[in-house]
Amino acid sequence: MSDGTKQKVHVITMGCVKNTVDSEKLMAQLRLSNFEIVPSIEGADVAVINTCGFIDAAKEESIDMIIEQVKRKGSGSLRKVYAMGCLTERYRQELTVEIPELDGIFGSNQIPDVVRSLGAEYRSELLGERMLSTPSHFAYLKISEGCDNPCSFCEIPLMRGRHVSRPVEEIISEAESLAAKGVKELIVIGQDTTAYGLDLYGKRRIATLLPMVADIPGIAWVRLMYAYPAQFPPDLLEVIAGHPRVCRYLDLPVQHAADNMLKSMRRGITRKSLLDLIGRIRDAGVALRTTLIVGYPGESAEDFGLLESFVRETGFARLGVFTYSMEEGTTAYPLGDPVPPEEKERRKGVIMEIQKGISVERNEALVGSRLRVLIDRAEDGLYVGRTEQDAPEIDNEVFVSAPGPLTPGTFSDVEIPDAPEYDLYGRV
User: Fold this and answer.
1) Is 25 exposed, middle or buried (0-12, 13-18, 19+ CB in 10 A)?
2) Beta bridge partners of 140
3) What span, in angstroms and rounded, lies between the C-alpha atoms of 370 and 157?
4) Which of 170, 184, 260, 316 is the most buried (most CB within 10 A)?
5) Are 51 and 85 contacting, i.e. CB atoms less than 8 angstroms apart?
6) Which residues pair with 415 in a beta bridge?
7) Are 151 and 195 in contact (CB under 8 A)?
8) Residue 160: left if φ>0, alpha if ψ -120 to 50, beta else—which one?
């Protein structure tokens, strides 16, 4: 502003944790350029919306958020509104025409352009700097951008581009900086983390990278998300099962288990290979989270029956289900969307009911045990934390009673006297 007052910017993050990291990097750049980052839109002069374009529901939420902030600008509550991220990468021209009130539209890899558009100087030497929006004891560590996998249903390569690994040195420097700020848990993310290093080093190096991150002083847990099941690196499982500070936890989205569905989805793996891989992971004592898609074009009652039996047989520790969303530009788009929405929801409900039973059985087996719990927050007279087998925001939590105060970001040994469907109750 011309009077010397700091511009107040509020950054709104939609969608996945990869967007969270991008927003944190944007906020760090702006804060170091003498902008004030405010936690509420009510106190802002400028809104920056980091959009999601993954599925129809996410697109609608992002568009609704843009419209809401543009209306605030029209009423005089905001001076400027910018949009960035996956939705704007994919639909820049349409948004330019349909919402001309936006002051700037930027793609998913244009943080420097957003910074400059706001009148700040982008500083490349601050590449790893972040202004954390998560609790201070955990953070996401993005090791790559984009994806080379040909999955038929997925728009991510269209929005995020080809797979690009970050250099090891850059990742370690950022991880060291986060550890110096008090971060205890690093959650390693990327569109496909198991492909890390292929483009830079000619081979998959995720099994080399994880111990390097875990050995940084101050880091207690390193957790791996978004591993791709096809061509899973055999040395990775040894690291997850054997390193004392790498969580015995793996997020492995399998999407389906019927061979003709896996082939149409272009997943590069068969049901048998999936079961073999999952068997090795289970034998190593690693908790497994997955996501599935129901209602994909051509998914017959028999295909869905195979998926049901697969879920029962494998007994995933954690599981989420998406209903198929028809995305323009993907190879599945010409197949149409023949499964009715109500049938998709029914199938989703069936899978989640099976998973509920699995979760109850797993949780009840923990009654009477003692678990190491990372305390995340205080809530309603209890403390809420997570075990090694639970990622933040998506997995189970432990509600802990204690005779004295517990500090978020510290670990406690917790006895488990009770276990409902998806969470645990414990006492110090």
Assistant:
1) buried
2) 187
3) 43
4) 316
5) yes
6) 370, 427
7) no
8) alpha
Task: For residues 158 and 264, give the distance between their C-alpha atoms in angstroms, rounded to a whole number.
Answer: 19
φ, ψ at 239 (rounded to 5°): -65, -45
Structure tokens at 2: 């011309």
Angstrom distances, CA of residue 396 to CA of 21, 327, 423: 23, 31, 5
pLDDT in tens, 253-278: 999 999 999 999 999 999 999 999 99
Give every strand in the sheet of 104-105, ordered side by side: 36-37, 8-13, 46-51, 80-85, 104-105
Measured distance CA(303)–CA(289) in Å, rounded: 21
d(CA 71, CA 66): 9
Do residues 145 and 195 lie in contact, with contact meaning Cβ atoms separated by under 8 Å? Answer: no
Side chain identity, residue 208: T
Q: How far is CA 308 from CA 113, 119, 338, 352, 354, in A?
A: 47, 54, 20, 10, 8
CA distance 322 to 82: 30
Cβ pair 53, 159 in contact under 8 A = yes
Per-residue pLDDT of 354-390, as tens digits, reads 999 999 999 999 999 999 999 999 998 899 999 999 9
pLDDT digits (tens, 9 = 90+) for 81-127: 999 998 998 889 999 999 999 999 998 888 999 999 998 888 887 77
Contact yes or no for 157/189 (Cβ under 8 A):
no
d(CA 8, CA 196): 37
184-to-140, 211, 372, 374, 411 alpha-carbon distances in Å? 11, 15, 14, 9, 10
Single-letter code of the amino acid located at 284: A
